[in-house]
Amino acid sequence: MVFDEIYKDYWNKVYRICMGYFNDAEQAKDVAQDTFVIVFNKLATFRNESSVGTWIFRIATNNCLRQIEKQNRMPKTDLPVELEDKPEPDKEWQTKLLYKCIAELPETDRVIISLELEDVKQAEIAKITGLSETNIRVKVFRIKEKLSQKFKQYGH
Amino acid sequence: MDTNIDFKALWARAADSQMPDSREIIDAAIRLNIKMRNKMLMANLCLVASAIFIIFVVFHYHPAMWTTWLGTALIIVAILFNLAASGNVIRLLFKSNLEDDTTAYLQHLLHIRQKQEYLQTTMLSLYFILLSAGLALYMIEYALMMQTTGRVLTYGITAIWIGFNWFYIRPKTVKKQRAKMDAVISRIEALNMQLLD
Question: What is the pTM of this model?
Answer without folding.
Answer: 0.79
